[in-house]
């Protein structure tokens, strides 16, 4: 008959276990024991467990701090002998132990996240290096397209390097969290994920800009871009949690959505002071676009200027009426 002595940590989580075959198990700080626990509050020979028909009989070997039985135990009527049943928990010194039989049932295996089933691809040089180069090229192209003065590298190099450094720092944060919680860094996987979501957002942002340009309305971008950012941020955070933690799918989605909503609330609160203020500038789509991106019918600038006389004449007539 084998007994499993499981060492429990914070929240009752297992930190390790010992398997001992035989009718008797000794636990203590001394190296002659079957289960050796490194705790200064545990005696060299602290306790012994002896197999019986009803469980494991607990015997305190005159330890200094004794043994505290927490659950799943019983005392025989004829004596004060303590019998530990399967799943019993005791406290020895400052260590909490769970006593199990080798036939004790375990929880069913959790299903791996889709990203975890194919992490090798995200860690490949052929994946993250092209993502990095494409992201870098898009950063440079975006800065060049929005520049109204002569292009000079010295004016933009810190902006380009700064954006890439932010991505690296975020990926490093998640990798350190994964190293702490799961003993897996997954740095390149986290880095590839963040770059991929950034590229998707850049592409969709450009498409929304083209749509706003053709509709000649800034309201489209004002509504769609925050919704898009919220959706992609939730998806990214859920994936980050999947790689760095052991959270269940529902917990990941709730945590990701809760964090995104918190950011939105803070952002709205910070901008509430600007609401209601008069702006002398009209509300219109002001980003520059090339004419080839226009697919909607529009009036030329010359035709618009020629029609102004009629517009003002009609306004004067209404004013006189």
The gross shape turns out to be: elongated
The Rg value, from CA coordinates, equals 33 Å
Structure summary, number of beta strands? 9
Given helix and strand content, the structural type is alpha+beta
Low-confidence stretches: none
Main beta-sheet strand count, sense and barrel state: 9 strands, mixed
User: Alpha-carbon distance between the termini?
Assistant: 105 Å
| Mean model confidence by pLDDT | 83
| Topology order in helix (H) and strand (E) letters | EEEEEEEEEHHHHHHHHH
Estimate what percentage of residues fall within beta strands. 15-25%
Separate helix tally: 9
The share of residues in helices is 40-55%
Written description of the protein model:
The chain is an alpha+beta fold. It is built from 9 helices and 9 strands. Strands 1, 2, 3, 4, 5, 6, 7, 8 and 9 form a 9-stranded mixed β-sheet that branches. Helix 5 runs antiparallel to helix 6. The longest helix has 29 residues. The protein is elongated. The termini are far apart. The model has no long low-confidence stretch (mean pLDDT 83).
